């Protein structure tokens, strides 16, 4: 059975790195995996998405509307923007974190204050936490992407695989400890 995952967020949040670690881990553990990146305006804080599909045999990385088993939103408004891709009964993992787009910063638009509530009203399975706070308590706010990855891994039921070795293979040695802690902490939150 093929699983379809959609990572959504804002440029600079480490979405592509988290997707790459997940993809490499799933391949290492015997799954056929396809990944597609859409950078958008990543360098300017624009929307970034990555689609990952895995299973016994996968032919395409592309996910249509209503097909994602899990959406991992690194920023809560991005969750609302991409929610139409989540299948009925799918899981939404949301970072309760705000990154204001340029239009909000210059006063053209207002950042909505009820995003999480609306998501919970429309999605049955929602996991919400502030990954930035979790990562900061661990010692490095930049590890929030790996905290979210840990929550996704738990939601997928693949937490028993050796993710520690995958972290070590994909990150510089000086980043091993914080990211191993982050992935384990994320697994506790889902």
UniProtKB/TrEMBL annotation:
Keywords: Oxidoreductase, Pyruvate
Enzyme Commission numbers on file: 1.2.7.8
Pfam families named among the record's database cross-references: POR
Domain (Pyruvate/ketoisovalerate oxidoreductase catalytic): residue spans on this chain: 11-187
GO molecular function list: indolepyruvate ferredoxin oxidoreductase activity
Listed PANTHER family: INDOLEPYRUVATE OXIDOREDUCTASE SUBUNIT IORB
Protein name, as recorded: Indolepyruvate oxidoreductase subunit IorB
Organism: Caloramator australicus RC3
Lineage of producing organism: Bacteria, Bacillati, Bacillota, Clostridia, Eubacteriales
């Amino acid at each position: 059975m093929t699983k379809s995952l959609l990572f959504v967020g804002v440029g600079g949040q480490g979405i592509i790195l988290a997707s790459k670690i997940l993809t490499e881990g799933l391949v290492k553990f015997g799954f056929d995996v396809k990944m597609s990146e859409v950078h958008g305006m990543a360098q300017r804080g624009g929307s970034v998405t990555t689609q990952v599909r895995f299973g016994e045999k996968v032919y395409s990385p592309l996910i249509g509307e209503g097909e994602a088993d899990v959406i991992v939103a690194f920023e809560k408004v991005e969750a609302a923007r991409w929610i139409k891709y989540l299948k009925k009964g799918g899981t939404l993992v949301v970072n309760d974190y705000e990154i204001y787009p340029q239009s909000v910063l210059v006063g053209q638009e207002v950042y909505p204050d009820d995003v999480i509530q609306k998501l919970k009203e429309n999605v049955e399975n929602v996991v919400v936490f502030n990954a930035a706070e979790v990562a900061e308590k661990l010692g490095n706010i930049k590890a929030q992407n790996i905290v979210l990855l840990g929550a996704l891994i738990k939601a997928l039921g693949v937490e028993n695989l050796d993710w520690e070795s995958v972290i070590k293979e994909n990150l510089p040695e000086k980043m091993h400890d914080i990211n191993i802690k982050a992935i384990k902490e994320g697994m506790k939150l889902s």
